[in-house]
């Protein structure tokens, strides 16, 4: 148990669907992150939130829309995705944005058909 | 900028063999260095870390020493087990770097398979 919980674990969606990924942490951390993990590529940092404010968006297409209603919850809203968006999406949290240690969830395996 | 380079995998070893996974980094200032492990079907877990030069991180029989002179943080284990089969990621975090201050920057990962 890492303290960071992601749901769902697996998701299959069509290109016209709208879905959301959820991440929850009860570690008292102030920073939360979305990463994308694709086969044979380094982990890609997508978004960073610190104290509920988005501090970084690494040129992520607008079909990915993050939301952070409070420091414990992070969502990734998905719409009109492409097959190349199929990947493992990982959520992480750290005490503060200056990362000394990040805790990861188990990820959501997304397949876009 | 900051970057991490680790040896290409996959690495296949027999049980009780010695493991080394090489990792070198490029960074300004004094980054913190990490090894994360990802078991099949799971997210990443912190394996060990070192926050300053000459520090040695260790956990579960794994060790890595922060070598500033060679900008390296190689992962070692004296005797691997089948249960060590996983993907290992080297990473750094650098508060001195402007735009991505403090974010974790990962290597591509090295897949380790240990055979009985």
Short description:
With 113 residues, chain A is an all-beta fold.
What can you see in these coordinates?
- The complex is a heterodimer of chains A (113) and B (116).
- Chain A has 113 residues and is mostly beta strands.
- Chain A is built from no helices and eleven strands.
- Chain A has strands spanning 4-7, 10-13, 18-25, 31-37, 44-50, 53-57, 64-70, 73-79, 87-94, 102-104, 108-112.
- In chain A, strands 2, 4, 5, 6, 9, 10 and 11 form a seven-stranded mixed β-sheet that branches. A four-stranded antiparallel β-sheet of chain A has the order 1-3-8-7, with no helix packed on it.
- The N and C termini of chain A lie far apart (31 Å).
- Chain B is 0% helix and 49% strand.
- Chain B is globular.
- The interface between A and B is medium-sized, with 25 and 23 residues.
| Helix-and-strand structural type of chain B | mainly beta
Strand content of chain A: over 45%
Number of E strands of chain B:
12
The chain pair with the largest interface is: A-B, 25 and 23 residues
Shape of chain B: globular
Order of H and E elements of chain A = EEEEEEEEEEE
**Total beta strands of chain A:** 11
Distance between the termini of chain A: 31 Å
**So what's the oligomer here?**
heterodimer
